[in-house]
UniProtKB/TrEMBL annotation:
Gene Ontology annotations for the cellular component aspect, listed alphabetically: plasma membrane
Broad class of where this protein is predominantly found: membrane
Lipid bilayer topology: Multi-pass membrane protein
Protein name per Swiss-Prot or TrEMBL: G-protein coupled receptors family 3 profile domain-containing protein
G-protein coupled receptors family 3 profile domain span: 530-789
Classification via PANTHER family: C-FAMILY ODORANT RECEPTOR OLFCD2-RELATED, CALCIUM-SENSING RECEPTOR-RELATED
Family: Belongs to the G-protein coupled receptor 3 family.
CDD domains cross-referenced by the UniProt entry: 7tmC_V2R_pheromone
Length: 811
């Protein structure tokens, strides 16, 4: 094919030279505008004559989409290039050097952009960096060309050691190690197995020639002899491939070291399969030994047991979902995506085709190298290359905005190229990216071995271990009497991740046990159902107490209110209202003030309440004694004494609470030991002794009240209040006796809920048992709430007392 080259013609108009494009500009297959534009040069077709990508042999459509994915991911981040967008222009080279150079020239000249017919020759290129190429020979051409204009080239797969020459390629970088290291490692691998008599095969390009030259030099130093050295290339005639096959058949060496690209190896293996040449030990370079399109069940007949080095596999979170979500309709004008879609679904967006594409076909049903995200060895290098440029641009802009360090005090004058030389960052999986003085990354490889699994699928990683590596969330435990290589994997304890590293106290291990996540916060909240139910009952109790107070106040002059010590009744109703309301302080996130208030308010209000009940009980006993002949007991426990008794009991509890708050006040704390999954926000008592003194004092008054009420239950009383008090105190004591074991055994927020329930239940017990019977008479039986009815009861009680006295005298 005659390659039409873009010619730059200089014409002088005045003092400023102008440049003009001759020929039709090439349009990128995939493109998007942005503040910074990255170029991409990949092989989407195997040769110039093809019109569609051949995904079985060229998975570089995945490389192109990964570049787009990384750019979109960066555009959505705020920590890298904030308020700056990245764009892209991606070209196809059809795996030829001339088209690769033509694509580079198109990127530099801005071909395909809306621009005047002539422009100043001094105008800078709109491309800030170029990602690619996959092969070394095209990359050499690209780097040689664009290096003259200080445009960086970052390759993901060009491994030729020759590209490390900084004098010839000053702007070249790569995210894959140089073949200098791989070639020497292959020689050591062959030496390790004692294969000192080998044949070699290489691709007839810069990758194969340079890599094999380094291998042969290293092999000679290791004492390895080379029987033959064959050259292959995909454009060679079949006769040349048959000649290579014949050399292999006739050779006495049984080990072959192949430093070739996978496409060339595909042509060779076709002939090897036809002649059924098996039983050889193949040692391969990373280009083909870990290529999934080469590792087929059919090819396994030839390459069985092949070993070699490959780039470490990696995961790119979110990539598979992105690949499956791509739609040609969502990227109008990107012809490369349309052609990719037509090839995958064997359809056409041209209506004249027998099967028309709709753009909504399901990519989940496709299983090929594009949709397979399990082997991302080289793809991951594309991802890192994009992020490398992004970090360099980020540092450059930080310098210009005076928000970051500037190199050599040359602010606003240095291109991103200088920042690529010092880039140093880590990607998602913790892999660090940086370059040496030659633009090479640190060398790291996986040793792979072709093995067929039970499903007939070739696996690359060799299985020669006593025990499988422990997964995250487990730890090694050596087997007794076995070597250190043999171990069991035991589950890590709760709160431990990876290989049983403990999480910080406020963190817990996630389900996969590979990350520490913050524990959930737990407390009795206003928003949860249980909290709302308790609030409703608390407010209902306070409302009911207020209603009873209103009823008693309205009928304050009636006998039933007067006969039961109205002053103590009103004080008791007030204290019950406070008891209901104090339960609200236990709900919500604990704070310093709420912790101090909840226990002290509870202690004081309940003592006030029980003191009133105790006073009413004593009044009943004293009233009976007062009816005995010659008794002046009521003078000893009149209204003044009743007020003083309630005040004294309450002041004693108040004094205890004040000392508690001054010396060791309650405070909010985070309980991380009771439950390993959550952080429980609770109130520490400050002083456990003070807390139990407060509770014990309430219990003491309650027992006294219950005993006195029980003794007075059969005493004649106008309205049987002693019986009601006895029953109410029975309910009260039962609730708090049940509370103790429930409080101790309840976990987390349920401990607080149990205490709130006890407060509400005991308060309701007092309110309902003492006052509801009286309200029933006041509101529904007013005839019994009269002076006449009261006098009749007094006469009846007098008769009963007279009979009792007479019986005693007769005895």
């Amino acid at each position: 094919m005659l390659l039409r080259v873009i010619v730059l013609a200089l014409s002088v108009q005045g003092e400023e030279p102008f440049c003009k494009l001759w020929g039709n500009p090439d349009i990128p297959l995939l493109s998007k505008t942005g503040d910074f534009i990255l170029g991409g040069i990949f092989t989407l077709h195997n040769n110039i004559k093809e019109s569609k990508p051949t995904l079985k042999s060229a998975p570089e459509a995945l490389f192109a989409e990964t570049m787009i994915f990384a750019i979109e991911q960066i555009n959505n981040r705020t920590d890298i290039l904030p308020n700056v967008s990245l764009g892209y222009k991606i070209y196809d080279t059809c795996d030829t050097v001339p088209l690769a150079i033509k694509a580079a020239m198109a990127l530099m000249s801005g071909a395909g952009e809306a621009q005047p017919s002539t422009l100043p020759c001094s105008q800078q290129s709109s491309i800030h960096a170029i990602i690619g190429h996959s092969a070394s020979s095209p990359t050499i051409g690209i780097a040689t060309l664009v290096g003259q204009f200080n445009i960086p080239v970052i390759s993901h797969f060009a491994t030729c050691a020759c590209l490390s020459n900084r004098k010839e390629f000053p702007t070249f970088f790569r995210t894959i190690p140089s073949d200098y290291y791989q070639s020497r490692a292959l020689a050591q691998l062959v030496k390790h197995f004692g294969w000192t008599w080998v044949g070699t095969i290489r691709s007839d390009n810069d990758y194969g020639n340079s890599g094999m030259a380094t291998f042969i030099k290293a092999a000679e130093q290791e004492g390895i002899c080379i029987e033959y050295s064959e050259v292959i290339y995909r454009t060679n005639s079949r006769e040349k491939f048959l000649k290579t096959v014949e050399v292999i058949k006739m050779a006495s060496s049984k080990t072959i070291v192949a430093f070739a690209i996978f496409i060339d190896m595909e042509f060779l293996i076709k002939e090897l399969l036809l002649q059924n040449i098996t039983g050889l030990q193949w040692v391969g370079s990373e280009s083909w030994v870990s290529a999934k399109n080469v590792a087929t069940k059919e090819n396994y007949r030839i390459y069985k047991g092949a070993i070699g080095f490959s780039i470490a596999n990696a995961e790119i979170p979110g990539l598979k979902e992105f690949l499956l979500s791509v739609r040609p309709s969502s990227t109008s004008g990107n012809t490369g995506l349309i052609k990719l879609w037509e090839d995958m679904f064997d359809c056409s967006f041209n209506t004249s085709h027998s099967k028309t594409c709709t753009g909504s076909e399901n990519l989940h049903l496709i299983n090929n190298l594009y949709t397979d995200a399990s082997e991302l060895r080289i793809t991951y290098n594309v991802y890192k290359a994009v992020y490398t440029v992004a970090h360099a641009l980020h540092d450059l802009l930080a310098c210009q905005d005076s928000q970051g360090p500037c190199m050599a005090n040359q602010k606003d004058t240095l291109p991103a190229l200088q920042y690529l030389k010092i880039v140093n960052f880590s990607v998602n999986n913790g892999d660090y990216v940086n370059f040496d003085i030659n633009g090479d990354p640190p060398a790291r490889y996986d040793l792979v071995n072709w093995q067929l699994n039970v499903n007939g699928i070739i696996e690359f990683i060799p299985k020669s271990v006593c025990s499988e590596s422990c997964r995250p969330g487990t730890r090694k435990a050596t087997k007794k009497g076995k070597p250190v290589c043999c171990f069991d994997c035991l589950p890590c304890a709760e709160g431990e991740i990876i290989y049983c590293t403990k999480c910080p106290l406020e963190y817990r291990a996630n389900k996969e046990k590979d990350q520490c996540i913050l524990k959930d916060i737990e407390f009795l909240s206003y928003d949860e159902i249980m909290g709302r139910i308790l609030i409703i009952f608390a407010l209902l109790g306070a409302l009911l107490s207020s209603t009873v107070t209103a009823v008693f106040f309205k009928f304050r002059d009636t006998p039933i209110v007067k006969a039961n010590n109205s002053e103590l009744s009103f004080l008791l109703l007030f204290s019950l209202t406070l008891c209901f309301l104090c339960s609200l302080t236990f709900i919500g996130e604990p704070t310093q003030w709420s912790c101090m208030l909840r226990q002290t308010a509870f202690g004081i209000t309940f003592v006030l309440c029980i003191s009133c009940v105790l006073g009413k009980t004593i009044v009943v006993l004293m009233a009976f004694r007062a009816t005995m002949p010659g008794s002046n007991v009521m003078k000893c426990f009149g209204p003044t004494q009743q007020r003083l008794s309630v005040l004294s009991f309450t002041l004693l509890q108040t004094l205890t609470c004040i000392i508690w708050l001054v010396k060791h006040p309650p405070f909010p704390s985070k309980n991380i030991s009771s439950n390993k999954e959550v952080i429980i926000l609770e109130c520490e008592m400050g002083s456990t002794v003070a807390f139990y003194i407060v509770l014990g004092y309430i219990g003491l008054l309650s027992v006294m009240c219950f005993v006195l009420a029980f003794l007075a239950r059969k005493l004649p009383d106008n309205f049987n209040e002693a019986k009601f008090i006895t029953f109410s105190m029975l309910v009260f004591c039962s609730v708090w006796i049940t509370f103790i074991p429930s409080y101790i055994s309840s976990p987390g927020k349920y401990t607080v809920a149990v205490e709130v329930f006890a407060i509400l239940a005991s308060s309701f017990g007092l309110l309902l048992c003492i006052f509801i019977p009286k309200c029933y008479i006041i509101l529904l039986k007013p005839d019994k709430n009269s002076k006449k009815h009261l006098m009749a009861l007094l006469v009846q009680q007098a008769k009963l007392k007279f009979r009792s006295i007479m019986n005693c005298m007769l005895r």
